[in-house]
Amino acid sequence: MKRYMFDRRKFLGKVVAAAGAGIFHLGGQAKSSEKSIPPHSVMNPATESRPARPVSEWMEGRITGRCSVPRNCPGWAHNAVFYQVYPQSFYDSNGDGIGDLQGIVQKLDYIKSVGVDAIWINPFFESPFGDAGYDISDYYKIAPRYGTNDDARELFKEAHKRGLKILFDFVASYTSIDHPWFKASALQASNKHSNWYIWTDNIWLDPPKRFQGAFVKGYGTRNGQYMQNFYYCEPALNYGFDVPDPDQKWELPVDHPDVLAMREEMTNVFRFWMNMGADGFRADMAGALVKSSGASGNQQFFSMRGDGTKQFWQHIREILNNEYPDAFIVSEWSNPVAALDGCFHADFFHWFEGYNDLFQKESWRILNGYSEGHSFFDPDGEGSITFFLTRYMEQYQSTIGKGYISVPLGNHDNARLGNRRDADDLEIIFAFGLTMPGVPFIYYGNEIGMRQMPDRWPQVEGAYRPRNGARTPMQWSKGRNLGFSTAPSERLYLPVDPAGDAPVVASQELDPDSLLNRTRRLIHLRHVEPALAAYAEFVPLFAREGKYPFIYARARDNDVILVVLNPSGRTAEATFDLDLRFSGPALLAGKELELINRNGTVSLTVPGKTYAIYRLS
Ligand code: NOJ
Ligand code: CA
Q1: Taking CA 301 as the corner, what is the angle to CA 467 and CA 246, rounded to the nearest 5 degrees?
Q2: What CA–CA distances, in Å, run from 283 to 122, 323, 332, 333, 334?
Q3: How many CB atoms lie within 10 A of CB 227?
Q4: Crossing angle between the packed helical segments 423-433 and 515-528, to the nearest 10 degrees
Q5: What CA–CA distances, in Å, run from 309 to 228, 242, 259, 270, 342?
Q6: Best CA proximity match to 540, nearest among 351, 434, 390, 377
């Protein structure tokens, strides 16, 4: 056993005081007065309402190589890399201008060749597409524009043949306004679905102020206002209120028989797709089920006061553990402490300011009108890793052995990472994303450096900026519609990138040094290096406010990986403690640096826009 003697300073990292409901009561200030509301317009109380601890508290850990593997997590997930497919923009197999399931089937070999293990596909169910298919009108049917249920069956089968898993998008917190359940619930006459949505009992009386902006009035023949969960066309399903307000008789308890009946139906939905061959799901707005009468504003989306939302997902997880033990589920919650408490295998940690700090802090980059400042991953070198890291460590320390945090490498709700970044900048981002703990998700097209399209791009199906500019068709080859579709270009779901040098798969396949091939090498590294397993220990070593580089270790038993990231355009220097005996650090990726190790203190100089991944032995 190698000797780890890294405990020179005392380890001060403390586990977040309380799991679950308790943590949400803590007061305090968000990072600053800067506004940074994600496109959801949802502030995350788990991460926004408490003061950040100084990063030094987390930096003084020691490398032990000890790891804790989450229980009931399928083995394949521990080294898995996921790929996100936005179905309308991936590949159009029948020339109607919109991507479809057969198109995904035809591109499975490509996805496999990227080296990923699993795919998450955004919603493909029947929908009026007021929110790009998140607004579902039939949970049991593939939207005709994507194909049929038989196509879905074939897709699952073809993916499995290639050793790929597929997660569907489970939108459990609301339906489309066009869903027959909602139409029935909007009727004056009481019926089976009347209580499946949250309705007040008098259209002329506004609900209490704390719900401001969340209710819509004047729909249907029913005398009441309904609660929306996101857009007006997305009425919230009724999971009840954790502590119903006695003055608001329309607030039902979580165990009301109609609430339970609706919940039961949602478990049928989940089983339906699992039985068809899906390997798990991504849960949309997973924290937005049970409502809290004690919460105000957007906080109600996070169900902070009670455990009702968690209990629903724990129930689903129990079914999963018993009936589909090889399946994997990931939440859009951005509250790992809650989400990994017996609910999900992984949680996306991106709806918080620290995520913006990484990739999209500049107002021109995030384009949602709220954020300004500098990204850490930017050649200007004006950003800081510390706020992200502090928030991350709070959640990480509290969830070790319970599940995984995922810091997604882009998605359909944010501007593209390739927003005025070149291949070298993007490679450093991938080096980060593919060496962090947890499960990486790569948004389609980011592996070739697809760029963010400007604001003037059509805002279709609820894709207001910046989402419209991040959802354009996949760029397969030079030529007509960049190989996405044979339709006339004006019929495409969204126009393709018109730039003469738009990155495309076909050219990058031929270039060993393309971003695509560099990404493949990094994914391969993640698969083969034991210390890059999702559960391997994570120890920040050099992370200073407003400074570059960012340096950390990953460790599993005797295997230790050192990651050095300098995305800034300037040379950066670091000195840090590493009381770990190693002789020849072996460079695995990036550029060779000179590491000077004097009695456990390592110094190094990192040129601008440079990273290095070493194995220490
Ligand atoms: C999150 C989804 O990712 C986003 O695209 C959608 O608009 C909202 N949830 C509402 O479902
Ligand atoms: Ca099509």
Answers
A1: 155
A2: 10, 18, 6, 8, 12
A3: 21
A4: 20
A5: 17, 9, 13, 16, 12
A6: 390
Ligand nearest to the CA of 38: 1
Compute mean pLDDT per 10 residues along the chain, 617 residues long, and list them: 29 22 23 37 46 57 89 96 98 98 98 98 98 98 98 98 98 98 98 98 92 91 95 95 93 97 98 98 94 70 73 97 98 94 97 94 82 93 96 95 98 95 98 98 98 94 94 97 98 98 98 98 98 97 96 95 98 91 88 91 96 95
Please indicate whether residue 170, judged by its CB atom, sits closer than 6 Å to ligand 1: no
Token pair 């009992």 is found at 201
**Integer Cα distance of 108 and 101 in angstroms:** 11
Amino acid at 448: I
Angstrom distances, CA of residue 251 to CA of 9, 240, 287, 464, 582: 53, 7, 18, 32, 62
The residue whose C-alpha atom lies closest to atom 3 belonging to ligand 1 is: 413
pLDDT of residue 203: 96
Ligand minimally distant from the alpha carbon of residue 151 = 2
Nearest by Cα to 338 from 309, 315, 298, 317: 309
Q: What share of the chain is helix, strand, coil (3-state, %, to 5)?
A: 30, 20, 55
Ligand 1 atom index nearest CA of 40 = 8
- Which ligand is nearest to the Cα of residue 331, counting in written order? 1
Residue with the smallest CA separation from ligand 1 atom 7 is 131
Q: Do the Cβ atoms of 590 and 611 come closer than 8 Å?
A: yes
- DSSP state letters, 465-499: TTHHHHSPPP--SSSGGGGS-SS-GGGSSSPPP--
Judge if the beta carbon of residue 134 lies within 6 A of ligand 1. Answer: yes
Beta bridge partners of 517: none
Starting at the edge strand that comes first in sequence, how are the strands of the sheet with 550-556 ordered? 537-542, 550-556, 559-566, 610-616, 586-590
Q: How far apart are CA 592 and CA 502, in angstroms?
A: 31
Which numbered atom of ligand 1 lies nearest the CA of 467? 5
Atom of ligand 1 nearest to the CA of 173: 11
Say which DSSP state 20 is in. Answer: G
How many angstroms does the Cα of residue 543 sit away from the middle of ligand 2? 47
Tokens encoding 506: 């076909």
